[in-house]
Each structure stands twice: as C-alpha cells, then as structure tokens.
Amino acid sequence: MHYRTYVKADGSKADRQAKPGNRYEMWNMYIAGEVGGMAESLARLAEMVGDPTEKEHLIEAANCFDSPAFFDPVAKNVDDIRTRHANQHIPMIVGALRSYITNGNPYYYNLAYNFWNLVQGRYAYAMGGVGNGEMFRQPYSQILSMNTSVMSDHQRNMYPNPDINETCCAYNLAKLTKDLNCFDPDNAAYMDYYERILYNQIVGSVHPDYWGVTYQYAVGMNARKPYGNETPQATCCGGTGVENHVKYQEAAYFVNDNTMWVALYLPTLAWWEDKGIVIEQMCKWPAERTTMVVTRTNESKDATFALKLRVPYWATEGFDVKLNGKSISKNYQPCSYVEIPSREWKQGDRIEVIMPFTKHINWGPDKMDLAATGKNETRTPFNPEWVGALMYGPLVMATPDVKEWKDADFALQSNLSDIHLNGATLDNKYNDNLFTLTLNGKQFQPDYYQTDHSTHYLRLHVASDSKQKSKKGIDKTNLEQVLQVAKERVDAQNAWNALTVKVPAFSPWAPNGYARLIAQMEAAEKVQAKANKELTQEEVNAATSALNVAINTMRPGNLAEPEDLSELLPLLTETKNIRNKTTELREAIDYADMVVQYVNDGSGTHDLIDKALTRLNEARKTLKQQ
C-alpha cells in the first residue's frame, strides 16, 4: 500500500484530494471509506505469526486503514463522531484497539476508550444501538432524530419511519465493548452495556418463528421490526446476523492467571483447562437467579483463584451472592464486581446469585417537542417533555397499546409506584420466562419479544417534591448553538461550490436537505435578531427545534434522498401490477424494492436508483417483446 497510497494531512481539503491515494481523505469519505474489518483481521494475523518481520509488516498493513481525520480528534477525547457513517467507523475503532495488542501504542487504546465513552450518552438509544439512516446524527439528539425520521411513497408522500439503529452497529459495538473489557475487567460499566445491547437489540433482531434478522432495527413509536436477510449476503447485517445468534455466551466469562470474572448470567459452561475445572451456570434467561456449580476435571491442577461476579447497575434491591449457602457480603455496589477471595475450589462448590429485576427509566438526552405523526405530517409540534423508556432490570420494555404520540403522555410518581412489575410467565414455549409490567392499564413486554406495533419511548412527567424555580427572561443559548452548526454546514457547502474542479465530485450535503437547512436557518436568524421583549420563549424553542430537525435530517452529498425516488417509485408500483411476470421482471422488482429501502434508510446512492430504473425498464421491454 505504501507504493500506491500515502498520508497528507496538511493543506486544504482540495490540496489533500488533488492527488489520488491520500488515505487521510480516502478513509474519511462517507461510506466510500467503509473498509469493514480489514484492520482487525490484519491485527489478529499479526498476533498469530511468530516471525518478527512478518508481524511488523502485518501490523503496519493494519494501520494503513487508520483514518487520521477521525482518529486524531477522538484520541484526544474530542467528539468528531457526529455526521459520520456509523458502521464505517465502529469497525475502524475495533481494529485500532486490536492493533494496540501488537504495536503497544497508547494512541490506539485512548482512541477506543474515548470513542466508547463518547457513544454512551451522546448517541446510544435505550437498547444500546446507535444511528439513524446508518449515520451518527448530532450528539444528545436521539429523541429528535428518532421522532423526525421519515420515508416516502411513490407519490412522494412522507410517513414516519421508526426503523433506525443498524444491527451491524450493535454487533460491532458489542465486539468493541468485549475487547475493552479485556483491558479493564473490573470496570462493570462495560458489561452492563454489553448486557443491554445483547439482551435487547441483538436477541431482538432475530425473528422468533422463522429465519429472519434485521438490518435496521425498530425504535420509537408504533415500530415494526423489518425482518429480512434470509441469506447472509442480502445485507451486511445478514452476515453478522447469522453470527450474532450463535455466540451469546462468548463474553460471559473472563480470566487472567488467578481470577475469573463472571460478566453475564446465562445458562453456560465455563471450561478452564489450566485450572482443571468446569463451572456450570444453571438458570433461565433472562435470569433473576442463577446457580453455578464447580466440577473438578483434573485434581492434579491447582484450582486456586478469585471469583468476581458482576453486580449489574440495575441491581439496587435484594441482590445477594451466596457461597455454599452463606451470603458473602451485607452490601453490594451496583455497577461493580463483588469478589470471592482467592481460594482452592472444591468439587461441588455452589455459588448462588440472586438479583431481582428492578424498575427504572432510561431517559433520552433531549426533550420531545416535534414528531412525524402521519402522512405528510412530519413536523407536528408538542409541548416539550422529557422522553424515556421503561426498564425492567436489563430489559427495555415496549407496548403495543400506544400507537400515537398524542397518547404517549404518562405521569409518574417519583418512586415509580405507578409501574407494576408482573414477574415472569411460565410456559414451555417461546413465552416462557417472559417478564411483563403494567402502567396505567397498558401492558409492556420486553423489546426482544415484540415484533410489531411496539412503542419504546414515552413522554414521562415524573412528580417532584421540590419546587422548581421558573427562569425569567428569554434564553437564546440553544438557538445560537444550533445556528452555529448550521453556519458551519453552509460554509462547507459554499467552499465546495467555489471549487473550479469538484474534488470530491459530490457536495458535502445533499440538495433537498440543504434547501431545508437554508429555509429554517433564515427563519431562525429572524427570531435571533428580534429583541427579547418582542419574543416568547416558546417562539425561540420552536425555531431551535425546527432548525435542529433540518440539521439532523441532512444527508451527505453522495447519498440519495427520498425525493430522488420520484421516478422509481411510480414505475415500481406500476410494474408490480403486471400479471404473468417473468423471472427477470421479478428479480428487477426485488432489486428496486431493496434500493427503495436503502434510500429511505439513508444508505442508498444515485447509481443504485439508476440501476434499478434500468433493470425495470429492460425487463418490461423484454416482456413486451415476448
């Protein structure tokens, strides 16, 4: 790669792109720099070879897939994640951390550590996933992004689209979390998050009755999981979707020379050959109680080690660990590990973990004041309210009983006594051990169990004992911050427009989203220019929200927008109505359906639309000639 590529980070973007092969720009292009797991694969190969020269060459090759434009800020704990393609960059971080094992450069560890921490509050949804239309949107705007996601029909009507959170992102975030945990296994936050993303989005991404896994997941109001990927090559999520569901157990246990960490409570077997023992964990899933039994498989080996058991963040009531029937502590700290000190483990030793699921709320970081609510109703205003998902232990709960935002307002007591935990069902089928809760007569089931018409987030008003002081005057701070983001995007677009030779060939932002930005920016600037005495805080908030929506729904210039489907959608609808379809026509229809989904989900390109049009027209022409 050194003969054909190089890294040039100085100069203007036009300078850096003037000569082909600059990896600084190559890997920084939206989707075009989606190199997948190349860095991780090469780094793993470097670990496997013994020859120092081969090892050096392999790790050097792995680091050829570094993206300095992305890596350098994040390694310094600067959030450069926003507006990037999610599953383009998460595998890059996985590969960077893997290369640290061989190259020993702390730059790569800091990069992975900072990225993981930045994602947690700024970009993740309740079930652990990230992204909308395959993109990291603005930080701390998950609720706005979720509520204003839309798709179009063949007449360019717009509808709410609650299918966000690409499943491949969940797969790679779980992998990154597991790898980071290996460096700091005492940090229970890693496996608290791993548990959340495994128990909710990953388990929930496979259909319970037939083989089908999700590409985009279902998040938000009245959402339906878009199962598909009947073959691994259908989408990237078809490949990882096959892998996801045969390795639930892979992060249950971690060991070093003298300690075992029990990170997940699942029905599993842990074979520790060096210690000559097997630990069998016996429980249902999901588990409020588990029993682990020690079997000595080789009495000649020293079975002396400490055992550390995770106390989940949600285990705030009734948690206990018993060794051979006796509690090991009176107090347990949630989001930590409790240790059974080093001892020689004997045949038949039993460890019991009791962890009643508790109720709590996973709050979104931003208030809800706008939502797409129906056909061409993409900006319905609401009174600002905090939004959250009800949690039952590690489980995100969803309800089929709330189908519109106007019915999603719930008042709660501060102790959450309004939420009634119903426990788990007993069955010998898929419904076995199904936890449910009830709120105001609405039934909630785990997100992983729901397939259709599920609502995860609610507008929640929690009663407070303390009196809130009302703020006086008009606060334009948020409006000014959002305007600054908008101006940066306008500047980038203008700089590209001024180029005589367009490198890259596409603009920073797609035209329809950019036009919406300009319109909302002009409206917001008029509000900002008004004297405070001429304004209400509601007007300022409305202008802020509208501009924020415009920013969050923009796409990079190399991606198609729903408006670009205006020719394909009516042709596709007309073609589906043709009787006696040929195999060629059916395949063209299937391909066009896939393109429409990709464009609505945020990853489709103009060349895909052109190819779909060509295939439909050619198949129709062939049919007429027969």
Question: Which short descriptors sum up this protein?
Answer:
single chain; 626 residues; alpha+beta; eight-stranded mixed beta sheet; six-stranded antiparallel beta sheet; 17 helices; 26 strands; 19% strand
Structural features, described:
With 626 residues, the chain is an alpha+beta fold. The protein has 17 helices and 26 strands. α15 runs parallel beside α17 and α16 (583-601) runs antiparallel to α17. The longest helix is centred in the last third of the chain and has 21 residues, at 477-497. The radius of gyration is 26 Å and the shape is globular. The two termini are 51 Å apart.
Brief account:
By secondary structure, this protein is of the alpha+beta class. The protein is 36% helix and 19% strand.
Distance between the termini: 51 Å
Q: Describe the global form.
A: globular
- The residue fraction in helices comes out at 25-40%
Percent in strands: 15-25%
Question: Topology of this protein?
Answer:
Elements: H1 13-17, H2 23-26, H3 38-48, H4 52-63, H5 68-75, H6 86-103, H7 106-122, H8 142-147, E1 150-152, E2 158-160, E3 163-166, H9 167-183, H10 188-204, E4 213-214, E5 216-218, E6 227-228, H11 236-244, E7 253-255, E8 259-262, E9 268-272, E10 277-282, E11 289-296, E12 304-311, E13 320-323, E14 326-327, E15 336-344, E16 350-354, E17 359-363, E18 368-371, E19 380-385, E20 387-392, E21 395-398, E22 409-412, E23 419-424, E24 435-439, E25 442-446, E26 457-462, H12 477-497, H13 511-529, H14 537-552, H15 568-576, H16 583-601, H17 606-625
Parallel strand pairs: 8-12, 22-26
Antiparallel strand pairs: 1-2, 3-5, 4-6, 7-8, 9-10, 10-11, 11-16, 12-15, 13-14, 13-16, 17-20, 18-19, 20-21, 20-26, 21-25, 23-24, 24-25
Helix pairs in contact: 3-4, 3-6, 4-6, 5-7, 6-7, 6-9, 9-10, 12-13, 12-14, 13-14, 15-16, 15-17, 16-17
